[in-house]
Write a structure and sequence with these properties.
The chain starts with a helix and ends with a helix. Helices cover about 80% and strands about 0% of the residues. It is globular and about 70 Å long. It contains 20 helices and no strands. Helix 10 packs parallel to helix 15. By secondary structure, it is mainly alpha-helical. This is Polysaccharide biosynthesis protein.
Length: about 550
């Protein structure tokens, strides 16, 4: 039992570590890119973001349900000793989803003009064309990621994610600097920048193909406990029955993000708000390039945890090991709260100072939007974990209903709030927070009903929340005292130093309070590398 739980946590840790590396690389890409082609006067970053949103929506339609569905099937077949069926499952998945990815790439490339017009940004056409081949590359990646995740081997997925990020950093940013140096127009700058995403996906897909070839050559004989292999048609039916609902539930939010682009642009240009098309796209660029960029950081970590949760719970249920199901759910929800509560509070307390550390302009608007998104951070993380849990329980329909209801709330909220001059662009993060909390609460209700219990509220939420409250108060006091005593002007070196010191104080206070409130167990720490030594050092019982 302990070894299986350790495999789950180690898999999650591997993906979290990779996600952190990816986000660091992404910061080295996004921050200078925003400073280079974004800001309050340039629409180029908005075009880049719009093209990326279109690509993400197409990706959701074509492949997003595949890794989760495939990992679930592979995990269940492996738990039952059906090795021959595992291989057939992977072949069936490739024969379905790779052609679908190719068709979506073609549709995105030749329909780029139509997509760009639909989001009220015709100049984004070239950027959409440049990113179109990425859909096919991700379809290939998804097949192999689903297989390896089903085997609880998260390393290939982690490495491929880092390769994708490195492609964006070196190729995308390099092309952006070149295009700006040559004095190209905003549409061309956006297109050359987004080309880095495509080339990163190409290299990642090539790595995964090479990894699969090496795995096949080095494969050791596996004891087959069950020779049964279902027909390819039956496996395809099961795969589609799992992946399509997952795809739809994920695509609901992705398509909502796509509609978000059109709504933000259109509503900011409404008579009540009165922005021009260029101003609307520049404002959208600040929202996505600054506020959303930081908002995605804790989400990335929790997504890694959710990827590990699904096959772990699915295989435990297949083996009728309900104790493992309960412990996995408890661990994942507690880690979710421990990670996201302080992140959301940090957004509320230090949003604008953090942005001033990194960006030259637009930080006042970006900070206001980022602070509002702080309320949504724990909710988005809960949605990722609870969706994966319900999918592992075999109730793929329930997240679909929750996500659809949340999407409706978000769209109506966007339409009415953004078009109201009292809110403007702030309506987007407000509706996002309401949307995700609705989904999270609905999913938790379903999990409690299906499992007949949820983990203890005090240990899962109460203790991390108390530690977060103490951290938030200490951070606010520290930053306020430093800036007033030192007389720091916004954006000055002293202001930035005060922000960094306040962040360090926040980390230290939060760590101490977690230990003092016994929010972390010795058993949890022992599952980490060198966990026994760390637990002894911290004197955990």
């Amino acid at each position: 039992m302990q070894r299986k739980k350790q495999n789950f946590v180690q898999g999650a840790v591997i993906l979290m570590a990779a996600s952190l590396i990816v986000k660091v690389i992404g910061a080295f890409f996004q921050i200078p890119l925003q400073n280079l082609i974004g800001g309050e006067e340039s629409p180029a970053f908005g075009m880049f973001s719009a093209a990326y949103r279109i690509y993400t929506a197409m990706l959701m339609i074509s492949t997003v349900g595949l890794p989760a569905a495939l990992s679930k099937m592979v995990a269940e077949a492996t738990a039952c000793g059906r090795e021959h069926e595992v291989r057939r499952i992977v072949r069936v998945a490739g024969s379905i989803f790779v052609p679908v990815g190719a068709l979506c790439s073609v549709a995105l490339f030749f329909g780029a003009g139509t997509f760009a017009e639909w989001i009220k940004s015709a100049d984004a056409r070239l950027a959409v064309m440049a990113i179109a081949p990425s859909v096919l590359m991700v379809a290939i990646l998804s097949v192999f990621r689903g297989y390896y995740q089903g085997r609880s081997n998260m390393v290939p997925t982690a490495v491929s994610q880092v390769i994708e990020a490195m492609g964006k950093l070196f190729v995308g940013l390099g092309l952006a600097y070149y295009a700006m140096g040559q004095g190209y127009s905003d549409p061309v700058v956006a297109a050359m920048t987004v080309l880095g995403v495509t080339l990163g996906e190409v290299v990642a897909a090539a790595y995964m193909l090479a990894q699969a070839a090496v795995t096949r050559r080095r494969a050791t004989p596996v004891r087959i406990l069950n020779d049964a292999v279902r027909p390819a048609g039956e496996l395809a039916k099961v795969l589609l029955s799992l992946s399509i609902p997952i795809t739809i539930s994920s695509a609901v939010m992705s398509l909502t993000d796509l509609i978000d682009v059109a709504l933000i642009s259109a509503r900011l240009q409404s008579p009540a708000v009165g922005m021009t098309a260029k101003q609307a796209m520049a404002t959208y660029g600040i929202y996505t390039g600054q506020a959303i960029n930081f908002f995605n950081l804790p989400q990335t970590l929790i997504t890694a945890l959710a990827v590990s949760v699904l096959p772990t719970i699915a295989s435990a249920r297949a083996a009728q090991n309900f104790t493992k199901v309960s412990k996995t759910l408890s661990t994942s929800l507690r880690l979710t709260m421990i990670i996201t509560l302080p992140a959301g509070t940090g957004f509320l307390v230090l949003s604008e100072p953090i942005l001033r550390l990194l960006y030259h302009s637009g930080t006042e608007t970006g900070g206001r939007l980022m602070a509002i998104l702080g309320f949504a951070v724990p909710a988005v993380a809960l949605v990722a974990i609870t969706n994966a849990t319900l999918q592992a329980f075999g109730r793929i329909d329930l997240p679909l209903v929750s996500m659809f209801l949340g999407a409706l709330v978000k769209m109506f909220g966007d339409y009415y709030l953004i078009g109201d001059p009292r809110f403007g662009i702030a309506g987007a993060p407000i509706s996002t927070a309401v949307c995700y909390w609705l989904i999270a609460l609905l999913n938790l209700f379903h999990i409690a009903r299906l499992s007949h219990a949820l983990p203890p509220l005090g240990k899962t939420v109460g203790r991390p929340l108390a530690a977060t409250a103490g951290m938030g108060a200490a951070t606010y006091i520290c930053f306020t005292v430093l800036t007033r005593v030192l007389g720091a002007a916004p954006g000055s070196a002293v202001d930035k130093l005060s922000t960094l010191v306040s962040i360090l104080v926040a980390v230290a206070v939060y760590g101490v309070l977690l230990l003092a409130l016994h929010a972390v167990d010795r058993e949890d720490v022992q599952l980490l590398p060198k966990g026994e030594k760390i637990a002894n050092l911290l004197r955990l019982k």
